[in-house]
Prior knowledge:
Elements: E1 16-17, H1 28-45, E2 47-50, H2 53-61, E3 65-67, E4 70-72, H3 77-81, E5 88-91, E6 100-103, E7 106-109, E8 117-120, E9 124-127, H4 130-142, H5 164-175, E10 180-181, H6 187-201, H7 203-208, E11 212-218, E12 223-225, H8 226-237, E13 241-249, H9 258-279, E14 285-287, E15 290-294, E16 301-302, H10 306-322, E17 327-329, H11 340-355, E18 360-362, E19 367-368, E20 373-375, H12 376-393, H13 400-403, H14 405-411, H15 421-430, H16 442-447, H17 453-466, H18 475-490
Amino acid sequence: MALEAQNSTLQAPRVLRRAIPLYELMDEEGLVALENQADWILKEIGVEFLNDQESLALLKEAGASVDGTRVRFEPGLAKALCKTAPSSFRMEGRAPKHSVTIGGDSVVFTPAYGPPFVSDLDRGRRYATLEDFQNFVKLAYMTPFLHHSGGTVCEPVDIPVNKRHLDMVYAHLRYSTKPFMGGVTSPQRAQDSIEMARIVFGADYLENHCVIQGNINVNSPLVFDDVMTGALKAYAHANQGIVLSPFILGGAMGPVTQPALIAQAHAEAMVGIALGQLVRPGSPVVYGNFLTTMNLKTGAPTFGTPEANLMTYAIGQLCRRLDLPFRCGGQLTASKVADGQAMQEAADSMMVGLQAGANYVLHSAGWLEGGLTMGYEKFVMDLDHCGMMHRMLAGIQIDENALGCEAFREAGPGQNFFGVQHTMKNFEAANYMSDLADTRSFEQWSKDGCETMEQRANHRWKEMLASYEAPPIDPAIDEALLAFMAQKKNSTEDLWY
């Protein structure tokens, strides 16, 4: 079956705004108990800060108790230190039409982050390359259903470890005009990413505008090392964004019981946010969460489970009590291919995150194999589902046209509404119309080759890449970016560790 161009009858808004209620799982008593447990963890157990005397000094000066590398907080202190973080902020794209607001009732979808492998129906699972990275940046740029270019959308393992951040940031800046994330695997790589953003946007501009983010993960349980804190401080000092996310698998990096995990995640998030605010009060931050379950027989992570989903609801409520933008995972799955398991787990994870109040949905498209693989077919299947979520979040709009009086008058009792003027006027935008799902008869589907959705998605991503056109960039800026990269790459030997 020939595929039509990506759905144009429902153009995604540049900024997606939530018009549906949030799901409030926990009552006040339960939320207070979780907050108290987070405070207990921070006071009685504390958090380790490894190889980072500067952070220890900042926290001690702010009132925390420092014993060697262990930092403890009196109840309420970590929360108080988060108060200078903005409840929402604007993130600028290279093209103004792609700038977004993060926080409030705005919702931002971003691609998956971090897989070292990619897969597709033609070549199977393989290590990702820079070409794959560029492909996913281009695909994310082309769709109206992602608002953000992402960060390490896949790990280009054909580029030396100590230099690949330069190529990744360049790809985001050259092949897209949407907001993006920079490097975080060392403080210097974070600084290089920020410097490349300064080349494009201007040094003075970054002082008052967020154009780049760093995705900072806690070394759960309860450890921050100098790599992560160094990157965190680089972005905060430059007044650029931080997405601060504990990464916890219940039973491995935290207890197996849900309340204990929620309290731990909340404690870790507050401490990381507090550090960023001590570096630069008012710097933009997203309260992140990656909290899921694992198979306690095999040790494998699991996604879309009822326990993980319930914890997402609770974490969302705790985040709102801090009045911060909320990030959660998107279309997550442990499946190795874009099959029924993948789509069930992904759809459940995504829906719950949106109901929980997510403002920033990382891993909205492409995630497979617990985050080890970025799937080309899964990516465009997820895009189609993101389009559905755009429509769902818009809610039901009631006005004279939507109430349809003229349709009832024209059709009358016992008649169908296919041909009435109201239907003809509204049919294009009345429903989200997937262009990947096949709704034809069995006979029509069979005649055209019995293609599965995954096979149709295979055609789709190839068509998208074939029609991609790079956005314009000032040649002088492009030349400056390439010169910066060349200088950085020539100044040190390749490292492949």
